[in-house]
Structures are given as structure tokens and as C-alpha cells.
Amino acid sequence: MHDTKERLSLFWIFALLNYLYADVLALFAFVGSPNSAPHLPQWALLGSAVLMEIPIAMILACRLVPFRANRLANIIAGGIMTLVNAFLTFVLPLTNGDFRDPVYPAYVFFATIETVCTSVIIWRAWTWSGVEATS
């Protein structure tokens, strides 16, 4: 039987792979038309790097951090990733017209999977009992 630490780590791996593949598809949309590729400022690139570091770090944290801190970290990290993902996928495109972008349906597909995954992470961490953590 798998313990919660291992399952949470696997959920973070699953979420990370979905985040990365969605980004790869977006890059493919710009290949061959470099003039249409967005030129992101340094702060946006740094923000993206920090955002992607959250699931990467959580893969290790799930396995190495003690129960209380682990549970709290998963709830907070899952919440951050869920909120940012929802904002970038649903709110921002509606305000600037990106929902007409041909890549947008793929983003919605991946965003739905990612949001379900991070919601499961939050739920699993929230319902994680200290009894299991000590056994």
C-alpha cells in the first residue's frame, strides 16, 4: 500500500508533466513564426521559473518534510498552483482576447487536468491524518 507522502509526490509529478507539456505545445505554436512569439520581460520569466519550481520542489518535499509541515506545504502549494492556473487560463484570456488563440483549447484541456490534480492534492493533504503519518 502506498502512503500519502508517496501519492502526493506522484500527483505533483503528474501535474508538473502536464504543466510542461502544455508549455511545449505553446512553443510549437510559435515555431516557424518567431515574429508572433511573445517577448516576455525578465520579471515574467523569473515569475514563470518560480511558479514551475513549486511543483518541482513539492516532489521532494512530499517525501522528505515531516508530517505537519508537509501537509501545510501541500495545501498552500496546491492552492497557489490552482489559483494561478485558473487565473492564467480563464480570467486573463477573457480580458485580453486570448481565448480566440488556436492553442487556447489545448490550454483549457491541460488546465482542467492540472486543476483537478492540484485540487486532489489539496484534498488529500487536508484529509491526511497524523495517525497514518506516524505508522
Short summary:
The protein is mostly helical and 135 residues long. 80% of the residues lie in helices and 0% in strands.
Written description of the protein model:
The chain is mostly helical and 135 residues long. The chain has one domain (4-23, 42-127). 80% of the residues lie in helices and 0% in strands. Helix 2 (42-64) packs antiparallel against helix 3 (67-96).
How far from one another are the termini? 12 Å
Helix content: over 70%
Q: What's the total count of β strands? A: 0
Sheet-strand content, in percent, reads under 5%
Gross morphology? elongated
**Can you count the helices?**
5
User: What is the C-alpha radius of gyration, as a whole number of Å?
Assistant: 17 Å
Category by helix and strand content: mainly alpha
Give the helices and strands, then pairings.
Elements: H1 4-30, H2 42-64, H3 67-96, H4 104-126, H5 130-134
Helix pairs in contact: 1-2, 1-4, 2-3, 3-4
Features:
mainly alpha; 5 helices
